[in-house]
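Allow me, if you will, to draw on your knowledge of protein folds for a short while. I have a record of one protein: its chain in single-letter code and its fold written as discrete structure tokens. I should value your view on which stretches of the chain appear to form regular backbone elements. Thank you for your consideration; the sequence and its tokens are set out here:
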Amino acid sequence: MINFLNISYLKLGNDKQQKAYQVITDHAILEKLAQYNPILVGTIPIDIDIEKSDLDIICYAQDREEFRKELVHHFHSMKGFIISENQKLQSMKANFFINGFEIEIFGQNIPTELQNAYRHMLVEHKILLENNEDFRKQIIDLKRQGYKTEPAFAKLLALKGDAYEALLKLEI
């Protein structure tokens, strides 16, 4: 199992993963967010990304206003920089572009290893390891058809109900 808490695994990955590693390290993104225990999550780390997939970084943001100030301080000059809040999730995110990658930094007052994005990625990675290359390609095909990641997994696994909740029930 990959240690997703350290992005060095990306150096040995596919071209997109290696480029992602370069962007993240060249711009010291994780270092700038270190106080928030950042973790790169999503489809790029587990090699089911599509052309428009972004780099998703989750953060443990206990104080949203402080988090906002840090995001503005470090990233306001990046192309397309925007911050939005989700009151339902009590979260904040920043989006911007660097070297062809859209980067989304998500902050929530939940430790990063307990956030659903990280938990989903671990479950999805485990499922990918348990299945063949054809399964991975089917996930990517569904994503290209417009499916979000979790619903794509739920469809192929014939999971019932809410895809996001159903996947969490598969945690080890």
In short: The chain has a mean pLDDT of 96.
